[in-house]
TrEMBL record:
Family matches, as InterPro entries: AMP-dep_synth/lig_dom, ANL_N_sf
Pfam families named in the record: AMP-binding
Organism from which the protein derives: Actinokineospora bangkokensis
Name assigned to this protein: AMP-dependent synthetase/ligase domain-containing protein
Transmembrane intervals: none
C-alpha cells in the first residue's frame, strides 16, 4: 500500500531554502530593538544562522539531537530555528505561554540536550534539569550566567558554510491537548511548502509581499509561512500582540496572520476610537494589506461581516495540527460564518451518523509520534478519509461550517445526544460570563460551570434569573439543572487552558467541577 508518510524519510528541502537566502539582499526581516527599527536582509540572517549553527556544533549539538526553542516571536527565535536546520537537529517548539514546569517537562520528554529561552526563570529551570541553556535574545539579563544568541553568533565562526543535506522531520510540535494530555509529533517540510504553494496560487501573493508575524513562532502555521516566505523572498515584520497595530502602521504589511481573539480586541479598539469603522480598521491593518488570514478557532460571523464591510480582505481558514489545511475562504469563494470550501487539493466529507468532518489529503502535517524519545513514523493511506474530531455541516453551495468538537456531543442516560456548544454560548452570553462549560452531573443531569473575571461575578440569584429564559427555550433534556459560579477565569498555569487559550474540558471538570458550590437552577 502506498503512503504519504513512510518509514523511509524524504529529503528535507529546508537546507536548500537556507542556502538560497545567502545572496538575498532585497528581502529582509524588520523588527524593533531598544526602540530602534532594524532591518536584517535574508543574506545577513543566513550568515547569522550559520554562525549560530557552528557555535551549536561546538557545544556538542549534532544531527538527530533535539533542541528546545522557548520564547516569544523575534529575530533570535528565527536564528535558533534555522540553526537547528543547519546542524540537522530537531527543534522542539515550546509555547512562551506554557508554564515553566510544563516547558521543562516537554523538553525532557523530547530528549533535548540544549534549550533556548527568553525567560530567566525558565533558564534556571532548564539548567536544573541538566540542559545546556542559551538566552534567546541579544544579551542575557544581568546575573544570568548563560550565553546569549548574539554572543554565540559573534564567536561561531564561518556562517556561510553550505547547509548539509538532511532527510526526514525537522521539528517537534505538540497537539493542542483539548481532548487529552498533549502529544508530541514530528513534522517534515514537504507538506508545509506544498500547502503554501497552493496558498500562493489561490491568494496571489509572492515576492514583494510583506508578512506580519506576531503570534508565537511555536505555532506551526506561523513557521509554515516563514519557511515558504524565505524561499519566495518575502519581507517579514516580527512583532507581538501589544505592538501589532504600531508595527503594522509603521511597516505596512501586505499579509497578516491572526486569531479570533485578536480580531475581537481590534473590534473593541475600533469601537472606542469613535472613527468610522472603515477608517479605524485601516488604521490598525494599514493601507497596503492584501490578505488577512484568521484561524485556530471559530470567528464570530458578525465580526467577519463587519471586517468585510470595512473593506478588509479577511479570509477565515480551517485545519488541524495533524492533518493540515482542510477548509479555505478565498477571494473567489467567501462566506462569513463558514470556514470556506474544502481544500481543492483534497476531499472532505461528513460521517453520516455523527457529522464528524473527515478529510482525505495528500499533505498531512504529522510525520510521526515522539514516544519515549523515539520517533515512530505514521503510515498514511492516501485513500483513507481521516477523522478530525470536529463536527460540521456542508451547505448547498459547498461551504463548510464547523459546529464544534465531537467531544461536545454528550450522550445522556436517556440516550439523547446533546450538543453543548450552542448551549454554553447562550448561557455565557446571558449571564455575562467569560466562559461556560456544560457537563453531566449526578444522575446525568446537565450542569454549568460559569467563569467570570476576578471580582466581577454576579450573585447566584442574578445568575439564576439570567439563565432562566435560555433554559426555557431549550429542549427539556438540554436544560441545565444546576450551575456554579467561579470568580476567576481558568488559566494555562493550572492546566485548564492550552497554551493557545483553548479550554481543556477534562481538566476544567477535574479542577473546578469537583470543588464547585452548585446551585439548583429553578424550573
Amino acid at each position: 500500500m502506498s503512503t504519504t508518510a513512510t518509514a523511509a524519510p524524504r529529503a528535507c528541502s529546508l537546507p536548500a531554502v537556507l542556502d538560497g537566502m545567502a545572496g538575498e539582499e532585497g528581502a529582509a526581516f524588520l523588527f524593533r530593538r531598544a526602540g530602534q527599527a532594524l532591518r536584517v536582509s535574508h543574506a545577513a540572517c543566513r550568515a547569522d544562522a550559520g554562525a549560530l549553527a557552528a557555535a551549536l556544533r561546538g557545544r556538542g549539538v549534532g544531527a538527530g539531537d533535539r533542541v528546545a526553542v522557548h520564547g516569544v516571536t523575534g529575530y533570535e527565535w528565527v536564528l535558533a530555528d534555522l540553526a537547528c536546520v543547519l546542524v540537522g537537529a530537531l527543534s522542539v517548539a515550546l509555547y512562551p505561554s506554557a508554564p515553566v514546569a510544563r516547558a521543562v517537562a516537554v523538553a525532557r520528554e523530547s530528549g533535548c540536550g540544549l534549550a533556548f529561552t527568553d525567560n530567566p526563570d525558565a533558564a534556571a529551570a532548564f539548567r536544573a534539569a541538566g540542559l545546556d541553556v542559551v538566552f534567546l535574545g541579544p544579551e542575557a539579563p544581568e546575573g544570568l550566567d548563560v550565553p546569549a544568541v548574539a554572543d554565540l553568533v559573534a564567536g561561531g565562526g564561518d556562517g556561510g558554510a553550505p547547509a548539509p543535506a538532511r532527510s526526514g522531520p525537522f521539528t517537534v510540535v505538540s497537539t493542542s491537548g483539548t481532548l487529552s494530555e498533549p502529544k508530541l509529533f514530528t513534522v517534515e517540510a514537504a507538506p508545509l511548502l506544498f500547502t503554501m504553494d497552493r496558498f500562493a496560487e489561490l491568494y496571489g501573493f509572492g515576492r514583494g509581499d510583506r508578512l506580519l508575524l506576531y503570534l508565537p513562532l511555536s505555532h506551526l502555521p506561523q513557521r509554515m509561512m516563514l519557511y515558504w516566505g524565505l524561499r519566495a523572498g518575502l519581507d517579514f515584520v516580527l512583532s507581538d500582540p501589544a505592538h501589532m497595530p504600531a508595527d503594522s502602521a509603521a511597516h505596512q504589511p501586505t499579509l497578516h496572520v491572526t486569531v479570533p481573539r485578536v480580531l475581537e480586541h481590534v473590534r473593541w479598539r475600533v469601537g472606542k476610537s469613535g472613527a468610522p469603522p472603515a477608517v479605524a480598521y485601516r488604521a490598525v491593518f494599514g493601507d497596503a494589506i492584501r490578505s488577512i488570514f484568521v484561524g485556530s478557532a471559530p470567528t464570530d460571523p458578525a465580526l467577519m461581516a463587519e471586517l468585510l464591510a470595512a473593506g478588509l480582505p479577511v479570509h477565515e481558514v480551517y485545519g488541524t495540527t495533524e492533518l493540515g489545511m482542510i477548509g479555505l475562504n478565498t477571494p473567489a469563494a467567501r462566506k462569513p460564518g463558514t470556514v470556506g470550501k474544502p481544500i481543492p487539493w483534497g476531499e472532505v466529507r461528513l460521517d453520516p451518523d455523527t457529522r464528524e468532518i473527515q478529510v482525505r489529503t495528500p499533505t498531512p502535517f504529522l510525520h510521526g509520534r515522539l514516544v519515549d524519545g523515539c520517533v515512530e513514523p505514521r503510515h498514511w493511506d492516501p485513500d483513507r478519509f481521516e477523522p478530525t474530531a470536529d463536527v460540521g455541516e456542508l451547505d448547498d453551495e459547498g461551504f463548510l461550517r464547523v459546529l464544534g468538537r465531537l467531544r461536545d456531543f454528550l450522550v445522556l442516560p436517556s440516550g439523547e445526544k446533546v450538543f453543548v456548544t450552542p448551549i454554553e454560548t447562550a448561557l455565557a452570553t446571558a449571564a455575562g460570563a467569560g466562559l461556560c462549560q456544560v457537563a453531566p452531573g449526578p444522575g446525568g443531569k446537565l450542569r454549568a460551570l460559569l467563569f467570570f473575571e476576578a471580582g466581577s461575578a454576579p450573585t447566584a440569584d442574578d445568575v439564576a434569573a439570567a439563565l432562566a429564559p435560555v433554559n426555557r427555550g431549550l429542549h427539556p433534556w438540554e436544560r441545565v439543572k444546576s450551575f456554579a459560579v467561579v470568580d476567576r477565569m481558568p488559566t494555562v498555569e493550572e492546566g485548564c487552558l492550552t497554551e493557545t487559550g483553548k479550554p481543556r474540558r477534562h481538566v476544567i471538570e477535574a479542577v473546578h467541577g469537583a470543588a464547585a458550590e452548585w446551585t439548583r437552577q429553578p424550573g
